[in-house]
């Protein structure tokens, strides 16, 4: 049977260029933002270094450096492919490329200065490069927040046509709808065997023989081939050829899920691009580094915040009868029990009243117990919970090595006793003071969603992910999302 994707068939004309205009505007905006922020860093460096006027004799040289610095910064970022649209707005790759560009830019400047004997003040370089790096990373994060806000309003999203089996399309539709901020809107589907005109509200526009026509019909800028695709390797290659020059992105969803990019690499075998999936890292040097970093940060925070912690403890004791701290047995790495510390935010007899409140549990789909207006919470406790201040005593658990700064939510023994085998993988790493669950909604999450996020972290942990979660935690606490 002939197909527009067969090698012997006459190929259908590719759709006209359909890349969304917002994508190009966003990329140009990021370039201008980098140029501005690097200019701020280039101007601030001589002012900070020579604000006392001692550098006035070299004003011309510093003026030239201030003008050239932001331009060369943007050139360095472009050379590191930091403005490619596929990296912008999602994932850690964008931040990694910005950081690599800064390092390479600094190395080139140092090499050129040494090779040609240029007298570039070291103080100027020491101030400008770190400042520009911090500003650039902060600017990218701010741009992402604006992009996510626009996507929540239904703007700045890719229109996606899915190709595959009915089951795989249905699963991918649910995953995409679960994360609106990812920026994908499914507008159509192509499959050979369908039980109806729609799949989860997505119209079925055609089959594997009419992908090009379907792209035109729904004005999609992205075609995503699902895990159990109906297309052969030859057909996928033909499809990619037909879409050349159209700005339509081709995405292929692997059969494996919940595994992030750093663990996946392309390995060519016998001319085939096979996915090599690295094993998750539970031990080794990076884990030791994480433990040392966690304890150092926790100990420093305890020292700096000791007056605040003392004031909170006094406020808890003076406003309601009972101890300042709430101690509860939780399960840590490998199933080991430990006593987790929190500031007491409920009445002292809260545990005894739990059974009477079970019917009001808003997380009836799982093992968590959460209600928005818990009558056991004290007035001071409500404030502590609103800003997550009640969690600060867990810094002691981190110093003891029982917890991490970032990790899965520390579960109760009753929860662990009901874990399925896959959920038990949460116990392969230390629980955290914060984690993906903290920055993704906290108490607003369902049990299944909480488990999925914890397992995502276990499978894809990296130092960069930890830093990103810590950064997002601050925003989540300030916004008080899911805090009750």
Tell me the span between the first and last alpha carbons.
60 Å
Tell me, briefly, the overall form: globular
- How big a fraction of the residues is strand? 5-15%
- The radius of gyration over CA amounts to 27 Å
Give the number of DSSP strands: 12
Average pLDDT score: 80
Biggest sheet record: 6 strands, mixed
In DSSP terms, counting alpha (H) and pi (I) runs of 4 or more, how many helices? 14
Spans of 5+ residues with little confidence (pLDDT < 50)?
A: 1-11
Tell me the structural class.
alpha/beta
SSE succession: HHHHEHEEEHEHEEEHEEHHEHEHHH
* Helix-residue proportion: 40-55%
In short:
It is built from 14 helices and twelve strands. The chain is an alpha/beta fold and 484 residues long.
Helices and strands in order:
Blueprint: H1 21-50, H2 59-79, H3 93-116, H4 122-152, E1 158-163, H5 166-178, E2 184-190, E3 198-199, E4 202-206, H6 211-218, E5 222-225, H7 233-242, E6 249-252, E7 264-269, E8 272-277, H8 285-319, E9 325-331, E10 337-343, H9 379-386, H10 394-399, E11 404-406, H11 413-416, E12 432-434, H12 436-439, H13 447-460, H14 463-479
Parallel strand pairs: 1-2, 1-5, 2-4, 5-6, 11-12
Antiparallel strand pairs: 3-4, 7-8, 9-10
Describe this structure in words.
The longest helix is centred in the middle third of the chain and has 35 residues, at 285-319. The chain is built from 14 helices and 12 strands. The protein has helices spanning 21-50, 59-79, 93-116, 122-152, 166-178, 211-218, 233-242, 285-319, 379-386, 394-399, 413-416, 436-439, 447-460, 463-479; strands at residues 158-163, 184-190, 198-199, 202-206, 222-225, 249-252, 264-269, 272-277, 325-331, 337-343, 404-406, 432-434. With 484 residues, it is α/β, with parallel strands linked by helices. Helix 1 (21-50) packs antiparallel against helix 2. 46% of the residues lie in helices and 12% in strands. The strands form 4 sheets. The protein has a 6-stranded mixed sheet. A two-stranded antiparallel sheet has the order 7-8.
């Amino acid at each position: 049977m002939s197909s527009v994707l067969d090698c012997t068939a006459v190929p259908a004309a590719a759709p006209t260029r359909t890349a969304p205009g917002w994508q190009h505007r966003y990329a140009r905006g990021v370039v201008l933002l980098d140029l501005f922020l690097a200019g701020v860093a280039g101007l601030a460096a001589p002012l900070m270094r020579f604000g006392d006027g001692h550098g006035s004799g070299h004003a011309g040289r510093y003026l030239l450096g201030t003008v050239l610095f932001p331009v060369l910064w943007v050139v360095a970022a472009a050379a590191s492919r930091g403005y490619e649209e596929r990296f912008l707005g999602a994932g850690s790759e964008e931040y990694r490329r910005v950081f690599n560009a800064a390092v390479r830019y600094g190395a080139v400047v140092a090499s050129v200065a040494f090779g040609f004997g240029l007298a570039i003040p070291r103080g100027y370089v020491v101030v400008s490069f770190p400042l520009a790096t911090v500003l650039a990373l902060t600017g990218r994060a701010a741009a992402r927040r604006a992009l996510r806000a626009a996507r929540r309003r239904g703007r700045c999203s890719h229109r996606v046509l899915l190709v595959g089996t009915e089951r795989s399309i249905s699963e991918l539709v649910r995953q995409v709808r679960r994360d609106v901020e990812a920026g994908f809107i499914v507008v159509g589907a192509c499959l050979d065997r369908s039980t109806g005109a729609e799949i989860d509200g997505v119209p079925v526009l055609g089959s594997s023989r009419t992908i090009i026509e379907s792209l035109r019909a729904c004005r999609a800028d992205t075609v995503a081939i699902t895990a159990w695709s109906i297309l052969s390797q030859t057909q996928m290659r033909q499809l990619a050829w037909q879409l050349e020059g159209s700005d339509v992105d081709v995405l292929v969803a692997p059969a494996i899920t919940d595994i992030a990019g750093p663990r996946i690499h392309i390995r060519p075998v016998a001319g085939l691009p096979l996915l090599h999936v690295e094993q998750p890292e539970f031990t080794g040097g990076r884990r030791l580094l994480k433990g040392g970093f966690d304890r150092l940060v926790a100990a420093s925070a305890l020292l700096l915040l000791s007056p605040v912690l003392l004031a909170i403890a006094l406020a808890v004791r003076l406003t309601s009868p009972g101890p300042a701290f709430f101690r509860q047995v939780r399960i840590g790495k490998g199933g080991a029990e430990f006593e987790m510390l929190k500031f007491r935010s409920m009445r002292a007899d809260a545990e005894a009243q739990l059974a009477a409140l079970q019917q009001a549990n808003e997380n009836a789909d799982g093992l968590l117990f959460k209600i928005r207006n818990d009558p056991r919470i004290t007035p001071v406790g409500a404030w502590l919970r609103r800003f997550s201040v009640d969690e600060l005593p867990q810094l002691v658990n981190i110093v003891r090595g029982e917890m991490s700064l970032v990790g899965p939510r520390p579960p109760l023994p009753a929860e662990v006793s009901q874990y399925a085998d896959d959920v038990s993988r949460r116990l392969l790493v230390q629980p955290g003071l914060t984690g993906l669950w903290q920055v993704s909604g906290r108490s607003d999450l369902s049990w299944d969603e909480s488990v999925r996020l914890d397992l995502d972290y276990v499978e894809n942990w990296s130092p960069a992910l930890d830093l990103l979660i810590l950064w997002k935690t601050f925003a989540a606490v300030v916004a008080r999302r899911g805090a009750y």
